[in-house]
Amino acid sequence: MPSFFPPDPLEFVRRLVTTLEGRVNALANEKMNSEGVARAAGVLLQASLVAQQVFESVSGRVLKRLNVPSHAQVSELLTALQRIEAKLDQLGASQTHATLSAPVRPRPARTRTAPQAAATQPKPKQR
Questions:
Q1: What 3-state DSSP class applies to 105?
Q2: How many folded domains does the chain comprise?
Q3: Virtual CA dihedral for 23, 24, 30, 34, nearest 10 degrees?
Q4: Would the pLDDT of 97 be above 70?
Q5: What single DSSP character describes residue 10?
């Protein structure tokens, strides 16, 4: 017995979308190649750059009035902090090298009485 499969109902929609997409792409390519679109894109790009500069200027003034550091100032602080940490690491390495090469003296025991007084005083009685 041959099996009968009904046609896919979404196949028509897929073909329609593919055809529509192809025609829209062709129209967009045709319009994008015109000089007017290139000029308009240049004007929009220039306007966005001006808007970005104005925003940075205004936000910098607002941050200054609020006494909050800007991104550039925080970056400068970060590089200065990294330099300080590098110098501390160098000093720590040289300090460790110096202590490893020096002889180690034993330290006296830490008690409440001085070491000489502890030897001469009698021990307290336990209750």
A1: coil
A2: 1
A3: 170
A4: no
A5: T
